[in-house]
Design a protein that fits this description.
Its EC number is 2.1.2.2. The active site is at residue 109. The record marks 145 as: Raises pKa of active site His. It comes from Paracoccus thiocyanatus. InterPro entries: Formyl_transf_N (IPR002376), Formyl_transf_N_sf (IPR036477), GART (IPR004607). It is built from 6 helices and 8 strands; from the N terminus they run βαβαβαβαβαββαβ. The protein has an 8-stranded mixed β-sheet with strand order 3-2-1-4-5-6-7-8, with helices on both faces. α6 links the parallel β7 (149-156) and β8 (193-196). The radius of gyration is 16 Å and the shape is globular. By secondary structure, it is α/β, with parallel strands linked by helices. α1 packs parallel to α6 (163-186) and α5 (121-127) packs across α6 (163-186). The protein folds into 2 domains: 1-102, Formyl transferase, N-terminal domain (Rossmann fold, 3-Layer(aba) Sandwich), CATH 3.40.50.170; 108-198, Rossmann fold.
Length: 198
């Protein structure tokens, strides 16, 4: 049984879907949820789901990413995770941190990578006149949003879409995609999958 740690920064909706999926014959179980924000609403959701949680406030480490990551690593390593899932974790991790978990960190990003790494993905897709947007789950590497893709879901961009309306529809599909990719990854299957909006 694989042990899964999840890092969040906000409400944790993808974290909730991951935790809820890890039951029954699933090859993994959640062992801890962490955040860089002690006020993140997702921490209370994790506790409600009986998953231990912690927070390391990144604002206590101004200009000291290494110090923040050292503090983050302490409870993470104590939980002995086999897989680390980033689920709306809004901090860029250093190469040293990523290499510690090399080949074992997953991230979900709200675009059809390699298009639109970084922020404001939905606005950028609309402004480019794209017919589709979506989300990608990928392995994390030291290069931002550039690791091997493990799964994608495609969502049509509708006439009149705003970044907000598109984001809401993409998020609903992220909730389908991430649990499916995690299950396959925990079974040792890294072949990429593609879903279409339900």
């Amino acid at each position: 049984m694989k042990r899964v740690a999840i890092l969040i920064s906000g409400g944790g909706s993808n974290m909730i879907k991951l935790v809820e999926s890890m039951t029954g014959d699933h090859p993994a179980r959640p062992v801890i949820v962490g955040s860089n924000d002690p006020q993140a609403a997702g921490l209370a959701h994790a506790r409600a789901l009986d998953v231990p949680s912690f927070a390391i406030d990144h604002r206590a480490y101004p200009g000291d990413r290494a110090g923040f990551e050292a503090a983050l690593l302490e409870p993470l390593l104590a939980a002995r995770p086999d897989i680390l899932c980033l689920a709306g974790f809004m901090r860029i991790l250093t190469p040293d941190f990523v290499q510690r978990f090399q080949g074992r960190i997953l991230n979900i990003h709200p675009s059809l990578l390699p298009k639109y790494p970084g922020l404001h993905t939905h606005r950028r897709a609309i402004e480019a006149g794209d017919a589709q947007a979506g989300a990608s789950v990928h392995l994390v590497t030291p290069d931002l949003d550039a690791g091997p893709i493990l799964g994608q879901v495609r969502v049509p961009i509708l006439p009149g879409d705003s970044a907000e309306t598109l984001a809401a529809r993409v998020l609903a599909q992220e909730h389908r995609l991430y649990p499916q990719v995690l299950r396959r990854f925990a079974q040792g299957d890294q072949r990429p999958i593609t879903l279409t909006a339900a």
